[in-house]
Amino acid sequence: MGNNLSQEIYKFTHQRTSLYGLLVMIALMLYSSIPAYKVNPFLITQGFGAIQWCAIIMVAVSADSISMEYRNNTMVTLLFKSNHPFTIYFAKLITLVVYGITLLLAGFICSLILMLLLGNNYSWSDNFHGYSLITALGYNFLGAFIYLLFTISLSLLLVILLKSNSIVIIIGLAVDFWELIFLGY
Q: What is the pTM for the complete model shown?
């Protein structure tokens, strides 16, 4: 298991998709915070959009990282050489979860910085639906982590079943947008 995990981390860190995902999330957070006059407690507690962007980015990155191995036939080789194919998929899951945590941490830190730079009218102790802004932000990022676990698992399942990057991204984005519509964002 340790060998599979180290191989997956090595492969994932050498793909440019993960770096692009992080940069795109930071750029989209900056984009959502550009009109500084629209900064409000809801935008702050949503991490300047980081929570929604993380889910969308994770759908694309997780689908791309695994379907790429099917396209290049490396997945077949890995499964053929392994005594326990489950460990290969589990190592991929762990790698994607670590990347999701990295995205969420980067989003949280950027949210703190943007609040300090743009949220002059608000304090971290201001009340938002019965919680302070920092507590609501923390709870929202915790909920986003749980949702990322679902998103990553769904993407892995769909890629294993369908082996098509574009179909998995379309289904994942549809699920994400239905979730946003259902929750009223």
A: 0.89
